[in-house]
Every structure is written in C-alpha cells, then in structure tokens.
Design goal:
2-hydroxy-3-oxopropionate reductase; disordered N terminus; HIBADH-related; EC 1.1.1.60; six-stranded parallel β-sheet; 2-hydroxy-3-oxopropionate reductase activity; three-stranded mixed β-sheet; HIBADH-like_NADP-bd; 9 strands
Length: about 300
C-alpha cells in the first residue's frame, strides 16, 4: 500500500515525526509505516535514515525539519541526557514543533526528567506522554511491546491507536513520570530474573544435567517466565548479541536504585544485581545483551566459555 493510498483511506491519521532510530526505534517506526502512518524520521546515523526511507518513511536532515509539520512527535533515545539534548535548545523539539502537537517520549529515563519535560513543553503548548516500553528488540519487531504510560487521560486516548501499532499491553499508569516509574520496576524484575536464571544455568551445567531439557521443564512450571522464554537460547548458545545492552540495563538499575532511595523503598536484592551489572560492564561486556549476566556468574564460579 502506498503512503498516498494509506492517507486517503485514513484522512485523519496524524503525521508522525520519529527521533531516534536505534535497535528499538527502527523496527517501531517501520511498524507505524506498515500501519499506514506517514513517518518522518531523524537520527544521527545515515544508514538508519536510509533504512527508514527504504521502508517507506521520509528522512529529515535535522530535528527541526522532522518535527515542523508533525501532529505527533515520538522520541526513542538511550537516556535522560539524550532526551534533554533533543528536546531543549534552539534546534530542539520544543522550539520547533507546532503548538498543539503531542510529544510521546518512549525512551527509558528518570521519572523526574519526564516530569520536567512535560512542564517545559506545557509552556510551548505541547502535550507530553512518557511511554517507555518493555519487550526488547524482539518485542519491537513483533509489535508486542508492553507500553507503560504517564500523562493525561485525553492525550493517552489520542495516542492509543499509535500505541496499538507498536505493542500489545498498553496501560496508563498515572500522571507524568508514572510510566518511567513502572519501567524502572520492570527493569528491576528483569535484571533479578536474568540473574536467577544465570545462576541456575551454571549450577545445572556444573551438575552435568542436560541444560536444554532442564530449562524446558523449568519454564513449564512456577520458575517459568517471559525472561526465560526470551533468553533461553542466549543461555544455551552463549549468544549475547544485544537485544538489550548491559550498558542500558546499568543505566536503568541506576534509575531504579536512585528512585527507590528517594521514596524510601529498600531494594536489597536489586542493589546486589545492580552491582553485578556494573561489574560486568566494568569488565568490558557493556555492549553485550543483558543475558550476559551469565558470564559474571561463570567467572565467579571458575567456569568459562
């Protein structure tokens, strides 16, 4: 279906600007194009812009050019500093998007950054949702992400058709920053879960058990999880090609430990896993998938692959 046909069949579809075309952003923006949206994108790498154009999107030469005529601006960048860099300043989103636009930040950042962004945007007549996601690269490609949203109900309602083209579980969690708080909790659970799986893998292998058989039966019971389903092959094959990099999980563990400290919540196990993630990064494994926590357990156990 050409963009022209898509537009004529959906005359009220919002024009979308997409900023940040990385591991997550590229497949997510392509899913919107497949759903019939006009997407204009900007990112720092030319090959990612070429990929967007090949998928039927429009490559822009700057943030200002990308957002100028957009009804909805979606951002997907690594962390709070990048969100601030693309949002603020004369060349940023807030100065160049039109009044009345909806800015949806799908990055995983600190809740406070989301609150501050919403406040700054309000002064420009721009509405904001924080809408971080869970599901990793596979979830982005398959459009089955969980999307946790913070912001106003009316803005959420307007954005819902867009979210439905990107994910499966879409929930408004509360006011600005709430999506980021829930995402931080998500990252805590995922990291602890991966660590537990990694410890089980080393224990099973050192015991001489058939690892594939063991993981299959474990995943069928109470020990089963989405983490084990998604990461089982990573463990079995020692394939740590990044779906979600240790560097980013390190950033997220910093967010959750800091946010928990601010509200007075104790994270005793989470704090230990945060240190294990940090040590893996310090050993040069930051670019690997977070299932590479297995490597840290192997080192501690005197086993190596």
């Amino acid at each position: 279906m050409s963009n022209a046909l898509a537009d004529s069949s959906h005359p009220t579809r919002p024009a979308i600007a997409w900023i940040g075309l990385g591991i997550m952003g590229s497949p997510m923006s392509e899913n919107l194009i497949k759903a019939g949206y006009r997407v204009t994108g900007y990112t720092l790498e030319q090959d990612k812009l070429d990929r967007l154009a090949a998928a039927g999107g429009t490559a822009a030469g700057s943030i200002a050019e990308a957002v100028r005529d957009a009804d909805v601006v979606i951002t997907m960048v690594p962390a709070s500093p990048q969100v601030e860099a693309i949002a603020y300043g004369p060349d940023g989103i807030l100065e160049n998007a039109r009044s009345g636009a909806l800015l949806i930040d799908m990055s995983s950042i600190t809740p406070q950054t989301s609150v501050d962004l919403a406040k700054a945007a309000r002064d420009k007549g721009i509405r904001v949702l924080d809408a971080p996601v869970s599901g990793g690269e596979a979830g982005a490609i398959e459009a089955v992400l969980s999307i946790m949203v913070g912001g106003e109900q009316a803005d959420f309602n307007e954005a819902e058709p867009i979210f439905e083209a990107l994910g499966r579980t879409i929930v408004l969690c509360g006011p600005h920053g709430s999506g980021q708080t829930v995402k931080a909790a998500n990252q805590l659970i995922v990291a602890v879960n991966i660590q537990a799986c990694a410890e089980a893998v080393v224990f099973l292998e050192k015991s001489g058990v058939d690892l594939k058989a063991a993981l299959d039966v474990l995943n069928g019971g109470l020990a089963g999880s989405t983490v084990l389903t998604r990461k089982k092959d990573n463990f079995l094959n020692r394939d740590f090609q990044p779906g979600f990099r240790i560097d980013l999980h390190h950033k997220d563990m910093g967010i959750v430990t800091d946010a928990a400290r601010n509200v007075g919540a104790a994270l005793p196990v989470g704090a230990v896993v945060a240190q294990l993630v940090a040590s893996l990064r310090a050993q040069g494994d930051g670019g690997l998938d977070h299932s590479a926590l297995l490597r840290a357990v192997e080192r501690l156990s005197g086993a190596s692959h």
